[in-house]
């Protein structure tokens, strides 16, 4: 019996010791970050560092990629295209061909120079992997006329090429499509180099002293995945992380009341978009669709649910996006809405299917449904899993579709130009005049003309109430006292190479 | 004993086949298309067709099933398109964190549960018994995520004693392990208490007392050992459940185990990862149950005798 007791005790102690020892996998201990080190906790996990693969378009991979790799061009914090590896660029005779001139002196973190061969090989790798980013460049071809120049040729004029290239990252030539080992410790030409990457856990990086623009102010940058919002905010308050973002309104007062924490919001590129399925018999008439828009008191809903991170939208795309044009607001007028619905012969007994995907938007969608119900319009609120939502979205298996639509390229081409032509078939709405405007805007290399044309296109979409466009979204960021210079990014992809800290 | 183990292993093979078949059907019966989710809504028809063929999803279901079973027999669990690598590789990378968490939680639950059960069962109806009974009911009633948040607010934000989330040091393990262990502790404590209470009125305990042994010797040397049999069974069964409970705890504490991998895989219809995780957990649960049975026979000589005959 004594032997039995001893064995049990020994086993218990061994289990505790083993488990305690085996969790020491690196990372920072609780109690804060030190010196010129910064820890951030983003809103989405980083599951892969391969910017060309299946995860390439996700926010997590984009955030990592912009720290590790370079692009030809990139958007700045105001949405303007700025040079990264490319010093200058210009279209050819038509906007079907664009030439990019590479800066001299750009090197990878292993010291090898970045050449046009690397850029072309990266583009071909992205095309070969056929992931979501490749969908932006169907049948496009990149060539290298010289060591410091690349040319991208599209099958048809495409003025949005420079902005779309904000999603394209350059890696060294020779990394094959199948090479996943490279991305465990990738070599890039971005401001940081990778020390350790554990998918959905942590990306630990050091400053790249060989970066063409000079090394960042930080010595080390760690991006941690903390999926639970309250855990993320607690980590900020305890000093375990220095920067968090994507904070909902109800948490902002608490953070503002926390000593040493700075909170700021920045207008994002996202707009709450509620398409009507114009191919549905009940919603064929623009009068009905516009009446439904009038039936909801969006101003009050926004004030109640998003007092700091929402604003009544006055355009189809957000102000930082090229092609934004101010539209005449659709005011709340339930009486006029009821009259218009009666006049249009809208059957009040018919239930409209309102689909959305993310639980975060449930209160907003329910408030809209309740507003419509007050005008006699019955709505089935359908919260769907992402996989089901996407399938039904493409099959037009809905009457009203809610999405928070962002425009990460800062170009209306990837929003209006992509979603509203008849051929896109995304809303059941088709208008030849609109198609012509969007095609013309997409082909013009003159940005002023494009903005004007997208403005006209936006006016048609707004007038015909292809959807309701109730709210522009602001992104809330919060950072701790050791961060002295930080620029909140409208796309949720902060540039940590420009962050400055107090501690030495 | 060996015959029993071999028999259980053979049954286990059928269980694994059943688990593989059920999960194959469930993931494909779930609505939603993995290809559309992977590529996003802007993919062209050609892109969708190419990926559908690459994933073998254009083949008849029975063909997919036969090929899947063949692959599993060769220990090939397929490629996760989403993660761009073999599914089992991604799963095994996360498994140690979940095992760390589950084993630590089990150790805490068994040690604390046995201690509480002993204290309560020694004098049924006494003050200690009433306090322990109330505490165990409370521990089983509180939702795990709530307990986790309360512990974080108290020990990380309030007292600043422990880190709130993540991994890195043994201290990071404390809050998630305790959160996961608490309901399990209650189960072990209640079971131990009732077993001890029952054992203390058995004739062999009276015999031990009449031999002049102290109450402590009777309790620890005789009553406890016999009371361990149902506890061992429940520990074996509960460890499987703990791995399920770890999904929530891992999310609250940003613990990089199987939890977030599974949630992401299910949401994105990543068939290969869901199948690999399910089979691995089924295998682990099977082995744990087998270990519990072996331990059971070690603790209870009557079962050894039955097995021999």
UniProtKB/TrEMBL annotation, chain A:
Keyword Signal attributed: yes
GO terms (BP aspect): peptide transport
Signal peptide: 1-29
GO molecular function per UniProt: peptide transmembrane transporter activity
GO cellular component, one term: periplasmic space
Domain of life: Bacteria
Every Solute-binding protein family domain range: 81-423
Keyword annotations: Signal
CDD domains (UniProt xref): PBP2_NikA_DppA_OppA_like (cd00995)
PANTHER family, per database record: PERIPLASMIC BINDING COMPONENT OF ABC TRANSPORTER
Name of the protein in its database record: Peptide/nickel transport system substrate-binding protein
Organism: Nonomuraea wenchangensis
TrEMBL record, chain B:
Transport in keyword set: yes
InterPro entries listed in its UniProt record: BPD_transp_1_N (IPR045621), MetI-like (IPR000515), MetI-like_sf (IPR035906)
Protein name in UniProt: Peptide/nickel transport system permease protein
SUPFAM superfamilies assigned: MetI-like (SSF161098)
Positions of transmembrane segments: 9-30, 101-119, 131-159, 171-191, 228-253, 273-296
Coiled coil stretches, renumbered: none
Source species: Nonomuraea wenchangensis
Family: Belongs to the binding-protein-dependent transport system permease family.
Record key words, sorted: Cell membrane, Membrane, Transmembrane, Transmembrane helix, Transport
One GO cellular component, as annotated: plasma membrane
Subcellular location: Cell membrane
An individual GO BP term: transmembrane transport
Bilayer topology annotation: Multi-pass membrane protein
Entry keyword Transmembrane: yes
Domain ABC transmembrane type-1: 95-292
